[in-house]
Amino acid sequence: MQALRGLTWLLVLQSLGELIARGLSLPLPGPVIGMLLLLVALRWTPVRESVALCADFLLSHLSLLFVPVGVGVMTHLSLVSQYGLRMLAVVFVSTLLGLGVTVLSLHLLRDRRETDEPHKDAPHA
Predict the structure, then answer these.
(1) Domain locations in the chain?
(2) CA of 125: how far to CAs of 45, 114, 115, 122, in Å?
(3) For the purposes of burial, counting CB atoms within 10 Å of the CB of 110, is it exposed (0-12), middle (13-18) or buried (19 or more)?
(4) Residue 34 burial (CB < 10 Å; 0-12/13-18/19+)?
(5) What distance in Å separates the CA atoms of residue 61 and residue 122, rounded to the nearest whole number?
(6) CA dihedral 87, 73, 32, 101 (to 10 degrees)
(7) What is the C-alpha to C-alpha distance for residues 1 and 4, in angstroms, rounded to an integer?
(8) CB–CB of 58/4 below 8 Å?
(9) Which of the 8 DSSP states describes residue 119?
(10) Residue 55, CA distances (Å) to 3, 7, 30 in order
(11) Is the pTM of this model over 0.70?
(12) What does pLDDT average to over the chain?
């Protein structure tokens, strides 16, 4: 039951994001705004616990979520054969960009954390 509450939170926040994006004619997609709303909502314990249960369930069945993608690829094989090389290049470049941004973010956060924390070896006054 708690996992269903988590799924409800996910769907409500995504729908709110979609309403905000369309209502305000924002350039961001609704699901992105919904994820930002989720980030804020996760500070509230009931949301965090129920979403965690739902996320665990979805992650345990993650392979099933790839079935629609596989069916879509099989349905549009002509497009894949026509644009496959371009799509592969886009996937490759976007993956590298995503990894690069992640690495830079982690380095910046690590450096910031190291400057914010006092050194463990330094004597206390």
Answers:
(1) 1-60, 67-115
(2) 38, 20, 19, 9
(3) exposed
(4) buried
(5) 48
(6) -40
(7) 5
(8) no
(9) P
(10) 8, 8, 20
(11) no
(12) 87
* All residues at 6 or more sequence positions from 67 whose CB lies less than 8 Å from its CB, including other chains: none
- pLDDT by residue (tens digit) across 41-87? 999 988 899 999 999 998 998 888 888 888 888 898 888 889 889 98
Residue 29 φ/ψ, nearest 5 degrees = -70, 150
| Nearest in space to 21 (alpha carbons), one of 35, 41, 40, 10 | 35
Q: How far apart are CA 116 and CA 108, in angstroms?
A: 12
The C-alpha atoms of residue 34 and residue 40 are separated, in whole angstroms, by 10
Residue 93: half-sphere exposure toward Cβ, Cα within 13 Å = 6
| pLDDT digits 0-9 by tens, 20-38 | 999 999 898 999 999 999 9
